[in-house]
């Protein structure tokens, strides 16, 4: 993140965390252990535990084991939700590896997700009632976001506003809780906790919206370009394009809504979309949310940790280019 001592500290915490995460998935049955470690072993950004660790820099001090527990609750909740998401999405791949539902079926994937949620619940109970309440509220938002995504916007609803609310609930809520957990475990003030949570909520939107642009613009992230486009998954640029109701875009929208199963059709749609001015407008929208996130950091004391959070905003915007 640009500061060598802080980077080294965070790297050491994440290295230890990774070992503990693998151990947290051990079950009484070797099969359950294998299935529960499946997504963990595939890797990941570990963005949420990193945010817990970084946010813990704004308090008066932390108990090391409690800090690890706070990070564990957030990542276990996230990983558990991925098992359920893959069932909902009928996904074949997760992080470049066969999904759990593809390997062992939907029932096993759902139950393994439940197992990891249970492990998160056990861990959060060790932290105290305030943590349990926040975890429960966050889980409620995750579920409601998934239901809203599955159901889709209702008649008369703005599809773009509906989408933003879905990702606020599905992505923003857990990232907000991660930032707040880090502050809580370090004894941060209420003002700091509110600032961290507000930042986390907004940076969660930036995180997902930048992914939306990457689906169309980038070939260097390990994600096959146009995956969401081909599957008809709503993303920011396409939703903005539809919202503008410009007759000149009719051919492009027909292409997007058409059969994209062939590589040639997908490439044609991607090329046309990449060249469209809506991409610049979508990028500006990501930058706008990043600015809101930065503004939420104003109450935090100046220093290396705040600079690192500001850099997170910049990095997420730049990765969408």
Automatic annotation (TrEMBL):
Taxonomic superkingdom: Bacteria
Entries under InterPro entries matching the protein: Isoprenoid_synthase_dom_sf (IPR008949), Polyprenyl_synt (IPR000092), Polyprenyl_synt_CS (IPR033749)
Keyword annotations: Magnesium, Metal-binding, Transferase
Family: Belongs to the FPP/GGPP synthase family.
Pfam families: polyprenyl_synt
The organism of origin for this protein: Tessaracoccus lubricantis
SUPFAM superfamilies assigned: Terpenoid synthases
CDD domains on file: Trans_IPPS_HT
Protein's UniProt keywords contain Metal-binding: yes
CC cofactor: Mg(2+)
Record-given protein name: Polyprenyl synthetase family protein
């Amino acid at each position: 993140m640009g500061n060598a001592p802080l980077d080294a500290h965070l790297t050491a915490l994440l290295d230890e965390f990774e070992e503990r995460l693998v151990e947290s998935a051990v079950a009484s049955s070797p099969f359950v252990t294998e299935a529960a470690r499946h997504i963990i072993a595939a890797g990941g950004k570990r963005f949420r535990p990193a945010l817990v660790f970084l946010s813990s820099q704004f308090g008066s001090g932390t108990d090391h084991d409690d800090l690890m527990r706070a990070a564990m609750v957030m990542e276990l909740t996230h990983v558990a939700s991925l098992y359920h998401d893959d069932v909902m999405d009928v996904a074949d791949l997760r992080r470049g590896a066969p999904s759990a539902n593809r390997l062992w079926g939907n029932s096993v994937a759902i139950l393994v997700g439940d197992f990891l949620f249970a492990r998160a619940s056990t861990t959060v109970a060790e932290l105290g009632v305030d943590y349990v309440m926040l975890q429960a509220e966050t889980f409620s938002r995750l579920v409601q976001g998934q239901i809203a995504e599955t159901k889709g916007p209702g008649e008369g609803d703005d599809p773009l506003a509906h989408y933003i609310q879905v990702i606020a609930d599905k992505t923003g809520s857990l990232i907000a809780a991660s930032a707040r957990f880090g502050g809580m475990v370090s004894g941060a003030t209420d003002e700091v906790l509110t600032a961290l949570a507000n930042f986390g909520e907004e940076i969660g939107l930036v995180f997902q919206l930048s992914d939306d642009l990457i689906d169309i613009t980038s070939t260097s992230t390990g994600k096959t370009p146009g995956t969401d486009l081909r599957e008809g998954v709503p993303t920011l640029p396409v939703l903005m394009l539809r919202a503008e109701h410009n007759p000149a875009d009719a051919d492009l929208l027909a292409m997007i809504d058409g059969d994209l199963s062939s590589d040639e059709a997908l490439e044609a749609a991607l090329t046309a979309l990449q060249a469209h001015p809506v991409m610049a407008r979508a990028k500006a929208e990501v930058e706008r949310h990043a600015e809101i996130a930065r503004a939420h950091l104003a109450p935090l004391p100046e220093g290396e940790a705040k600079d690192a959070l500001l850099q997170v905003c910049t990095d997420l915007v730049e990765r969408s280019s």
